[in-house]
Amino acid sequence: AQKITQTQPGMFVQEKEAVTLDCTYDTSDQSYGLFWYKQPSSGEMIFLIYQGSYDEQNATEGRYSLNFQKARKSANLVISASQLGDSAMYFCAMRPGLPGANNLFFGTGTRLTVIP
Amino acid sequence: KAGVTQTPRYLIKTRGQQVTLSCSPISGHRSVSWYQQTPGQGLQFLFEYFSETQRNKGNFPGRFSGRQFSNSRSEMNVSTLELGDSALYLCASSYWGSTNEKLFFGSGTQLSVL
Lengths: 116, 114
Description:
By secondary structure, chain A is mostly beta strands. In chain A, 0% of the residues lie in helices and 50% in strands. In chain A, strands 2, 5, 6, 10, 11 and 12 form a 6-stranded mixed sheet that branches. In chain A, strands 3-9-8-7 form a 4-stranded antiparallel sheet, with no helix packed on it. Chain A has a two-stranded antiparallel ribbon with strand order 1-4. Chain B has 114 residues and is mostly beta strands. Chain B has no helices and 11 strands. In chain B, the strands form 2 sheets. In chain B, strands 2, 4, 5, 6, 9, 10 and 11 form a 7-stranded mixed sheet that branches. Chain B is globular and about 35 Å long. The relative contact order of chain B is 0.32. At the A-B interface, strand 5, strand 6, strand 10 and strand 11 of A face strand 4, strand 5, strand 9 and strand 10 of B.
């Protein structure tokens, strides 16, 4: 069974500081993809970063980086230099490795609040 | 390049009615998938279409259906609406729908069933 766990319902961070949002996953697939999305109050789901299970390097996209520890099955999101506009819900998701399996399994999300 | 476009943005329906939601994927993308988001159940996969064929289906009743057209645009339909169908419905697209592809979402359609 596929499962994504985000244990932090809410997080606070001071503006310009870095923050780590935790995500662990469970799958028996050898090939899979891991995603982080940001959802502001407007509801849109904004793609942040992607990590493939066979990627040896941790993914980075601007201020976002993914700390991928395959043996521990964790895929934590690191946001550097937090900005007020980073306040939102953050979802970790996994796509299993089945061909044509574009179905993501989502965690319950972490609400990040950036304090000025 | 335009993103994933969903229409309408908001919908209000009454129990027993049916509703059709529309999704236009990013140009060139051929895989379209649909998700339901509720406060209680979170984000759940509904179904995925690729080249007009349903490839995957989540655990939802038959009242939820969809289709994809030759231009990759997709529609989902919910018949005999129930109060519990009130949710944000999100559409996502990618080129192949393969494991190592990025998946992009639209802004969603907020459905309220009264």
